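pinging the channel bc i need a second pair of eyes. not urgent but kinda urgent?? the chain im working w is below, pasted from the shared doc
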Amino acid sequence: MAITIVATAGAANANSYITLSDANDIVAGLVPDDDVVAWEAGSTSDDYRNRALYTACQRIDRERFLGARATDTQVLQWPRTGVRKPDTYINTYAVGFPFRITTDYYTDTEIPDQIKKAQVVLAVYLQNNVSGIGLSGLEDFENVQLGSINVTPNLLNGAIGADRVPPMFERYFTGLRISGPGNVAIKRS
C-alpha cells in the first residue's frame, strides 16, 4: 500500500515535516554523494521516497526537544511553543533605553528549517541504506570489553554516527533539543 505524506504543521494526522516536492528541492542543492545520486536517479518510486521521509520523521520524533508541543491534538513533536530561534537576537541598543538584547521565538505554527533539512538528510541516507536505523551501534567496534575497558573500533566499517545516521543530521538539532549524542553522564562509583 502506498503511503501518503501529510506535512500540515500541527495536524492530528501529520506524518512528515516536509513534502516530497520540497524535499526534492533541498536534495537538488546537496553535494552529489552516493546517497544523493541514488535519491535523484529515479531508480526508486516516489512511494519509496515517501517511506524514507516518513521513517526519518519517526526518527526525529524520538528526540527530546526544548519547549512543549503547540497543541494537544498534534501528533508530531513540531510545531512547539517556547523555543527560541538559535542565534537570533534582536539588538535594541539603537532604539534607546533600556539597552537590552531580546530573543526571537518560533511561532506555534512554525516548523524550523533545521528540522526539515534534518528529515531530508536522513531520508536520503535511509533510501540508500535501508538498515541504517535498525543497527545496534556495536557494528562500529571489533571488540568491546568491560574489564580493563578495551574498545577496538572497526576502522574499515565506515561508521558515521552514534545512531548510525549522518553527522549533519545531528548538527541540525543544535539549539533545538535538550540533549544529544555528545552528552555523556559520568558518575562516581
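so Residues 113-128 form the longest helix (16 residues). and The chain has a mean pLDDT of 81. — does that match what u expected or am i reading it wrong
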